[in-house]
Amino acid sequence: MHDLGYSGWWQLIPFAPAMMMIIDGEHKENEYGPALKSNTISKSEQWTKFICVLILYLLFLYWVESWWGLLVIPFIYDIYITKKIKWQWWKDSEGPVKWVMSWVDALVFALVAVYFINLFFFQNYVIPSSSLEKSLLTGDYLFVSKVSYGPRIPETPLTMPLTQHTLPLFECKSYIEWPHWDYRRVKGLGKIQLNDIVVFNYPAGDTICSDPRYQAYDFYQMCYQIGYQMYPQRPNPDSLTQEQLPLYFSTIYQAGRQTIVQNPQEYGIIDTRPTDRRENYVKRCVGLPGQTLQIKDRIIYIDGKKNKEPEYVQYTYHVKLKQRLDDDTMKELGITMEDLTSLNTAGYMPLTNYAAKELTARGIAESVTLNTDASQTDIYPLDGNLHWTRDNYGPIWIPKKGESIDLTLKNLPVYARCIRTYEGNQLEVKDGKIFINGQEATKYTFRLDYYWMMGDNRHNSLDSRYWGFVPEDHIVGKPIFIWWSSDPDRHGFAGIRWNRLFTFVDDIK
After folding, report:
1. Beta strand ranges found along 165-241 (DSSP E)
2. Phi/psi of residue 43, each to 5°?
3. Please, what is the angle between helix 96-120 and helix 16-32, to 10°?
4. CA angle in degrees (0–180, nearest 5) for 96-97-102
5. 3-state secondary structure at position 175
6. What is the 3 state secondary structure string of 419-449?
7. What is the pLDDT of residues 372-412, one digit of tens each?
8. How many CB atoms sit inside 10 A of residue 493's CB?
């Protein structure tokens, strides 16, 4: 399930007044005709507007370092000064054409403005899942700044505004893959800091099954899970040598992938997505480039030092209730219907430390026991056989731009995806040796910075523990504040979380 929703038509709200002004202006001109047209703007005022717009536009081009935009200046000059091109030809039309085109004009203006502002300045998102609870809640609407870390120049510039990757109703791609521009980021106000909450594109979303039911699933996890089912009598990987492990995991993966290929009626076709069209996720950055991260008994350590846990961090607990939870208690302890569903179906539910203690102290629960169940086969790297779990992980060094690492068959699974997928190299293992772009390699120097992201709902978050590093070219922006929040378990005014409106995300520790 994707972690952060694009809030669609909500993006148009800031431009609704401008749309109505345009349409109202058209109606007034139609009603008053020549009387309104006679009130012309003087030449000096036109030049003043042109110069102001030109200065702002040149400053923007300087910021984004894209001087191809100078080609647009003659058209700006024509709009304000020469007026040779009839940009609003329909104003001379009669009947419904003028009325319809006034609406089209307003809508196009709003869509273009949304596209431009969403790309370079800010964007609205909604939290659809619980991976960051109780820091960010399901139903929180976020104002996300693109300038905090610097906006990206779009890799796929030809895309339909108000969509991420799919056109509603038509269920087809909402973007055209040509032209495809290389990654470049404009200078921002700062850099990602440890424990920042960050919006980014889902790294494992580069490959998907096209059937809508599976698009949000981790394709690589699916391949391995299906592959394991096809080899129930497979050998124990601990019995294999380091040289044999790559073939073992490749066989499992290819078996699963081939099953997907052979069943298009179930999974659809295998497709790819460019970086900026992948699902949006929001997590907390708990590891920066060049740092060494380790998780010991659920606690994160950075370069050997304990990292402060979020105030509302959650883990799952096996809970035996003595009585039914009433609505007031659920609201006070931050327990949702989703949490209760998890308890009823899986036997455990996520709780903060405070909620876990209160259930026992108030006599509501007979027992509250930390869930220590831990799988290894779904943990990154999927082909590593490192015996890491969600609660005991690493140590793992986070790649930093310009820094090198010695490559071995043991650590290659950790960094193979960075080398091959994110940095575009050919990588293969032959006769126990590592080859990059056809040359034997014992070291590798990274070209990008990488980050380690995790949810505050630690046992209910698909994060870097499952799909690895987040490259710098996947970073979208920084949530600034919550501009709206509605509780999906409650309706009407009772569902509005008034205390969360305009809460600054940096204040949520």
Report:
1. 166-167, 172-173, 197-201, 207-209
2. -60, -40
3. 150
4. 100
5. strand
6. HHHHCCCCEEEECCEEEECCEECCEEECCCC
7. 998 999 999 999 999 999 999 999 999 999 999 999 999 99
8. 7
